[in-house]
Every structure is written in structure tokens, then in C-alpha cells.
């Protein structure tokens, strides 16, 4: 049974908004004679009575008369209080859709742009602005933002390349001016390994290199060390002085081709590089951890969690759980907090008032309970 007259019967000339302002069902005037089925409901009544008998027809007639205001009269739309449509018209955000559904085929774009232009001219829609466009530049702050939020602008800046060129001459000079390596150089040129007594008061750094005396040699006037990596493919590596460590690390981690790799991969690259220095792995770790660009762009590593499981207890007070709620307004007894104690075994939960959350107060309550 149709409760409303189809719109096609009303005719195309009716403006629903202007000619029929919204009116609550209770405010609609009713026919004075309620015993006769109104003319516009005759058809509905006759159709409905086809399968009804005696009293049912009377009941149906009463129903129709009672609810006649729900049916449309000729030339108007029927109203009901049973359903209310809410249409939001002001300051509503547009519905977000995934980008795939907004993508328009190339051959349809011109037609879409024309349609959009027409709607804009009629004032039905207003222009938004592209994602990521700067508000202050475009002056479009009052207009609707479409799509997802633009990414937060990056603050960290690329570390500029060092002025130091890692040529053989530069490296030789840096080694000769390095407080530790220049001593090793001197010993190597003299061809004698100092006694332990001679260097016992020296730094650990010097002892580190002297401990590798057999592996160290001069190549073209540069101090090099024969280094065996895990693959057992030994190679000569330049003993890098402290002053060029940062430059080497910059080349390993910060250049555009380096790509800000993590600690492990940067160390793997360092192993393939022609340089070696004491605590190389540690200094790479510190350098990467302190890199602002990495810190800003990369998410922290996913911490693996163990599966949850039930904790089985066999006796009261074998395991308890506590929590403190508050602070609340101070009571007459000067209490501000509530200590909640739950016993895992009987599932008994009790609450105690606490004046403060000091460990002493907590312990007193727990041991007295
Ligand atoms: Zn980085």
C-alpha cells in the first residue's frame, strides 16, 4: 500500500520547497467530516478493501480516516511525523572518499571540468584547493579542504657536505697531525715496536693500534691496516684519523645515494669502504641515532609482543592487582585517593581511602588489609 502519491502524479511544475513549506502533521487541518473517505483516498481505500471482510473494512476505513493527513492530497506531498530527514547545509565537511574513487579517466576530465564550472557559476559549489598547497600563499583558508591532511612539513635539514676532500694528500696530512696516528707513523718509519713499559702510560687508543702492529703498514706514506672481515676476504684499509670520521660517515649515510640507511646497513657499507677506525661500529651507531632526518622520517621499530595468556593462581593472596584512583576532593578524614586492590584467586575487589600516594601509606594499607 502506497502511503504517498508518486511525485510523477503531482506534475513537474510543483516546487516542493516553496509551495509546500514544511509543516508538522499535527498542524495540518483535518477534514470536518471524518466519516467519509476523502476523494483522494478513494482509490487507496478500494484497493485495500479487496481482500478484507466486514469489520476489517470498517477498521481499515477508521485507519485511513485517522491517518488521512499522512496521504498526499492532489497537488501536494504527503507528510508524516514518523520519519524526519535531516539535511545538513551549513559548514559541513565534505564526505571523504578514497582517492581511487575520485580518479577520473583522461577522456572524461574536460566534460567534468565544464560541469564543475557550471556548478561554481550557479553558486552551488565552491572551489577547494590542492592538497599540500600553502594556505598563506593561496589565501584560500576559508575554502573547503579536500582529501587527506597534507603531511607535516619536515624541519630537519640535510647536513652540508664537509669541505674536506678525502684525497690521499689530505688523508696523509690528517694522519700526520693526529695525536695518536702520528706516533704509530713514527714507530713504523723507525721500524720498531715500542716496549710495553714505554707506552703503558699512554692512551687506550694508542695501545689499540699497537696491539695490531703486525697488521699495520705504510702504503704510499699512508698508515693502513690489513683487515679481515667476516667473509675472510682481507684488504688493506686506511687508518682513519679522528678528524675525518664525520666526513666518512657523511659519505656513508647522508649523501643522496646513501639514502640514510639504518645502523646495520651503514656498517655493512663501512666495511666495504677503504677506511677503518677504532670503534667503527659504535661511532656509526651514534651517528645514525643522532641523525635528525632519520629521526623525523622513520617510525620507531615495531616492538614484538608476546601473546597474552591467562595467569593461573592457586591460593588467595598469591597474586594481587592494585591501582590508585584520584586525586579527588578531600574528604573529612583528609583522604584524597582510592586504592583499589583485587585478588586474582577469589576475584575479590576492595577499595581503601588514602590521604596520599606515598609508598609508606600504600604499604601500610596493603599489609593491614
Ligand atoms: Zn639519516
Automatic annotation (TrEMBL):
<feature type="region of interest" description="Disordered">
    <location>
        <begin position="136"/>
        <end position="163"/>
    </location>
</feature>
<dbReference type="InterPro" id="IPR050951">
    <property type="entry name" value="Retrovirus_Pol_polyprotein"/>
</dbReference>
<dbReference type="Pfam" id="PF17921">
    <property type="entry name" value="Integrase_H2C2"/>
</dbReference>
<feature type="domain" description="Integrase zinc-binding">
    <location>
        <begin position="241"/>
        <end position="299"/>
    </location>
</feature>
<dbReference type="InterPro" id="IPR041588">
    <property type="entry name" value="Integrase_H2C2"/>
</dbReference>
<dbReference type="InterPro" id="IPR036397">
    <property type="entry name" value="RNaseH_sf"/>
</dbReference>
<dbReference type="InterPro" id="IPR012337">
    <property type="entry name" value="RNaseH-like_sf"/>
</dbReference>
<feature type="compositionally biased region" description="Basic residues">
    <location>
        <begin position="144"/>
        <end position="155"/>
    </location>
</feature>
<protein>
    <recommendedName>
        <fullName>Integrase zinc-binding domain-containing protein</fullName>
    </recommendedName>
</protein>
<dbReference type="GO" id="GO:0003676">
    <property type="term" value="F:nucleic acid binding"/>
</dbReference>
